[in-house]
Amino acid sequence: MLVNCVAYQDGRKLADIPASEISEYVKKPECFVWVALVDPTPQELDEMAEEFGLHPLAIEDARKGHQRPKIEEYDDSLFAVVHTIEIPSDAADSPLVVGEVDIFVGPNYILSVRNRTHKGFVEVRARCEREPDLLKFGSGFVFYALMDAIVDRYFPVLEKFESDLEQVEEHIFVHHSARSNIRALYGLKQKLMVLKHAVDPLMEATGKLYGGRVPHICAGMQEYFRDVYDHLHRIHETIEGIREMMTTAIQVNLGMISLAENEVTKKLAAWAAIIAVPTMVAGIYGMNFKYMPELEWPYGYYLTLGLMFAADVYLFFRFKKARWL
What we know:
alpha+beta, rod-shaped, seven-stranded mixed beta sheet, Beta Polymerase, domain 2, Methane Monooxygenase Hydroxylase, Chain G, domain 1, about 325 residues, about 55% helix
């Protein structure tokens, strides 16, 4: 679906134009065209490829989707794939919604294609139109603004992960919660890896936009792309810190499970020892021998019961003092 198709000149909006007139405005050196698509059909992509003269390999990647985050250079144009990460609002334990934004950047055009992404870029267009001095840079500035908006949306997701980790850590030493904690930690780790797979490749690709041989489209915008790289690097460092904390938390929970099992083992051993004393005495006097000592004692029965009870009481308090019971 076509969301916007706008022509700009000297940093200001010129007009909303039909898709069929894109090629006419692209030919004008003083203008650039900004088009936004959402979940386009193959026919819409083919129309944009014809109007903008897009590279066939870039169109093929956009048509297939599910690409790894990257930025590729084709002659005088760029093709970028950026992943969006969104947290569903219906359930806290629902999987993350991973979308994809394909961005085609040329000397005087920019085309953004959103797939499986709920939140749009209305605020990005409004921001760019509020800054005509920067919008004069054309497609290079819009490219930066789109990437900056997507990367900034990673921060709330990261904060949610940190909050979830803190909640799990608060329950680490709660009795009988170790197993549920481990399930929560592994679920959080899987979500964190989704964000990591979106950030790390993009950070590597963004580094090429401000250092070394910078593409002509990004000339004059190096400081802005370096700011995007710094944000990605900060997210990367935070992800690594959370991963280390989760590894430690998982080890602590496994230790708590082992400790709980040891406590159960000690209790079973203590009760087994307490039960073993009367069992042994009763077993001895239950043997069917004709000649056995103490069999003729008038109070032998009561003395034996008292001895078994005294031995068990002694063992009980000894185990209680040793914290086995």
